[in-house]
Amino acid sequence: MLRRRKLAETLFKAVGICSLALGIGTLVLLFGALIVEGASRIDWQFLTSFPSRRASQAGILPALVGSSLIMLVTAVVGIPVGVAAAIYLEEYARKTWLTELIEVTVTNLAGVPSIIFGLLALGFFVYILGLGASILTAGLTLALLILPVVIVTTREAIRAIPVQIREAAFALGATKWQTVSDHVLPYSASGILTGIILALSRAIGETAPIVTIGALTFIAFLPPAPVTTEPPFISFEWLMSPFTVMPIQMFAWVSRPGEDFASNAAAAGLLLVCMTLGMNGLAIYVRYRMRKRIAW
Questions:
Q1: pTM of this prediction?
Q2: Which residues of 31-57 are buried (b: 16+ CB within 10 A; e: fewer)?
Q3: Which three-class secondary structure state does DSSP give residue 224?
């Protein structure tokens, strides 16, 4: 019996190692193919040029600016709402059937395909509110997409704080909000920030909801500048501007014949992967730094 158990354990380890090697090997091969195909195409001209019918003159500037502005709107809308909802559900809401229904719904929404959020945004933001295919619509759509992830990860981070911290604060006469703002949130900030950055890194690569709400594949202009030389010096016209993003620009290049356009798509993919890995690396660094400062 003991020999059979050791054999089963060895077999399980071998299967696990093979699965890990298969996953990492596939990732390395795909990333290596992107580097070989697209690294030589990345230069200053590629980063600062508009799309062109000639592959050698085409650039990714509108897609790069569009992705950055959409992620700005997504972060400004999605993060405060998600964190506030998580704090309320975890610290203030009473355990009733309604709150349990909301919790189950939020958890299930985290696994809903992104195309569903795109269809919801098309009906509500584009047709009912009349926002059109704009940067604001795209940012709100992706904010809805990351909202369940932010709520779930924030709740998990808050739940990980020992209950003794709260009891000690209450024993010293602190109010509920003082306990949350002075103790719970600072101690759980590393987990919250990690979840937020991972959610944003997922949103930046989403294509289906952006295509659904009407993103363009060819843009030869940039959105209006947010800062002007005339009072009030701040403009929000860029929110209603048409847009494109990096995944859609990649799709447009891949759809065109010619190896040069394939190299452009590989270069854009390499930039997108580097941005995603950079955001994940930032999440790991922030979590490591903030955990070192915590002393229970």
A1: 0.84
A2: eeebeebbeebbeeebeeebbeeebee
A3: coil
